[in-house]
Amino acid sequence: MSLKSYYRPAGEGKKVHHNRHQLKRLFGKLAIAALLLIASTLYFFYFYTTTTTSYSSSAFPSEIDVNKLWDAADSGGWRPSSVPRSHWPSPPSESNGYLRVRCNGGLNQQRTAICNAVLAARIMNATLVLPELDANSYWHDDSGFHGIYDVHHFIKSLQDDVQIVESIPEIKKNGKTKKIKAFQAFGSHAPKILALRPPRDAPISWYTTVALEKMKEHGAIYLTPFSHRLAEEINNPEYQRLRCRVNYHALMFKPHIVELSHKIVDKLRSQGHFMSIHLRFEMDMLSFAGCFDIFSPEEQKVLKKYRKENFAEKKLIYSERRAIGKCPLTPEEVGLILRAIGFDNSTRIYLAAGELFGGDRFMKPFRSMFPLLENHSTVDSSDELKDNTQGLLGSAVDYMVCLLSDIFMPTYDGPSNFANNLLGHRLYHGFRTAIRPDRKGLAPIFVDREKGRTAGFEEAVRRVMLQTNFGGPHKRISPESFYTNSWSECFCQPSASNAADRCPPDDVTEVLENRTKQKVTSNLNDNEQDS
């Protein structure tokens, strides 16, 4: 028996035990309450510092070196390379048939469709008929492949990959000349024709089974429409490199478009660095996005009417769309981002844009911040430029100028968009700087500013922008498109430890052009000897 128990009165042991139990329960409750208080305080502090404009200092730097942005991003030793790195046989002399496709949409959408068509032809061992470019409903343009791209260069550049013809040839059978007709699935009511339609983002297996079976049966198939009809993510680096060879080497604009674009770039660059901005604030995109509330009642009627006529019915709430980054940036928001990053009113800007919706009132705030604005019409007002910048031709010129600019900034990048391909092209063209606003991250900051909470606005914008990529190599994460970022399949390192990433012995940036030039020169010499 202990001394404590010895001096304890009778019945005191049970009472003490009961009191201790109560104290333990009390201390437990207090500890839980304290932990909850600390956790809620930390959460509030984090939420407050990241979503409001009373932004205190953080671990992130609040400055961006604008001077460095005028130079290309750090490549990390990576170089563009779409040359095959494994056995890649030339197409057989006899194919399984002819593949026709109709590429719908705008310039970028058609461009990706052409890349997919070449790959589909390779997969099926088909002879590709020069892709048809749909007359664009927005631009009212029917230039076609011949009017925009260098057909001769396209066919020659890809002769080691696929056979390409300009039209399905006639064949002789039983002494009679007959033209092969591409297979189409006929509807029950003639003359309505329902074309063979691949599923959206169709897997390779669809082409090696369904499409190939019809091709072998009929000699030719016609796939229409052909937008996003082949899966982007394919676990075959050589197939992905073929896409890059098409996109960045074979698809060259016609010489007069290239020459005109270079003239504009030379004039802009004669006065120093310049930035290009794809200001996506046109009626079609605003209608598609469902971002109406900032417009007048009359303008909203126009947008809603356009949406009803061109897009599927869907209930869209502006505040929700904006919060998740689905609304295009307004011209004023673009200006505020650039100013927060550190650009001043001496910055020269080339605007690639159609007719901006809502009139000049949306451009005034932007112009007041950045008065040195140009487009292809203001840089060169000649008749030559006017005649060659109508419809898709104008979009092609803008594409080239944006490709060659020191900095490129899209205000709304996404599927089937001008900026989608351009970002990937600039990455492949030497990791050229791109400013890609995080619309979702910036949305609450702009909302706070509109409510009058402007303290720390620019620092908050910089903090968001510092988390974005400015054009260097980075891992592709869904939903980023392969056409926006073809790293690492279409890049290599001369001294990479991984053999799959090591550059082939040829000059990766010139091998395809040199190969084409050699064959063209050889053909010209043969023709001269024949004559």
TrEMBL record:
Keywords, in A-Z order: Carbohydrate metabolism, Fucose metabolism, Glycoprotein, Glycosyltransferase, Membrane, Signal-anchor, Transferase, Transmembrane, Transmembrane helix
One Gene Ontology term from the biological process aspect of the record: fucose metabolic process
Originating organism: Centaurea solstitialis (yellow star-thistle)
Transmembrane segments annotated in the record for this chain: 26-48
Protein family membership: Belongs to the glycosyltransferase GT106 family.
Location(s), subcellular: Membrane
Main localization (coarse): membrane
Membrane topology, record value: Single-pass type II membrane protein
Gene Ontology cellular component terms for the protein in this record: endosome; membrane; trans-Golgi network
Molecular functions per Gene Ontology: glycosyltransferase activity
Name of this protein: O-fucosyltransferase family protein
Pathway given in the UniProt record: Glycan metabolism
